[in-house]
Amino acid sequence: MNGRAKRMAHGVIAGGIAGIVLLQLGRAGAAGESGQQPIPRVWDDEALAGFELPPPDADIEVHHIPSAYYYALDERVIHRTHPVYHPDFEPEGYLDSLRALGPGTQLDTDTLDTDEEWIRAGEVVFDSPQLFLPADQPGFGAAALAEE
Length: 148
Known about the structure:
Order of helices and strands: HHHHHH
Number of strands: 0
Number of helices: 6
Shape: elongated
Structural class: mainly alpha
Distance between the termini: 38 Å
Radius of gyration: 20 Å
Strand content: under 5%
C-alpha cells in the first residue's frame, strides 16, 4: 500500500472510530428521557462533503463512508478495566475478586442526566483502551511480569 492509500485508510478509520463513539453518545442522548436536548446526527453526507480542505495533491480523492453505512455500525461496548500488578505487589485475593466481579461495562448511558455526567462519559469514551487481552496471556500483563 502506497503512502497516499495509507493516509486515506487512516483517515477513514479515524473518522469511523470517532463517529462510532459519537454515535453511541448520540443514540443515548437522543431518547431525551431526562429532558435534555437530543444530540444531533453527527455523520451527515452533505456536511462532510464541505468539511475538508482540498488535498494538496490533485490526484488524491477523499471519500467518506455514507451516513447509512455509518449509522448501521454496531455500537462499541466499553468494557470495565482494572490495573495489572506485578505478582510481588498484587493485593492478596485481587484476581479472585475480579473473577467474582465478572465482566461489565464502563459506561451506562441510561443513567446519565447532567451535563457533567455526559462530559465525564465523553472522557471515558475517548480514554478507553482499544485492545483487550487476557491478563494471563503469555507475554502480557501479570504473566509477562512473572516471566521476568
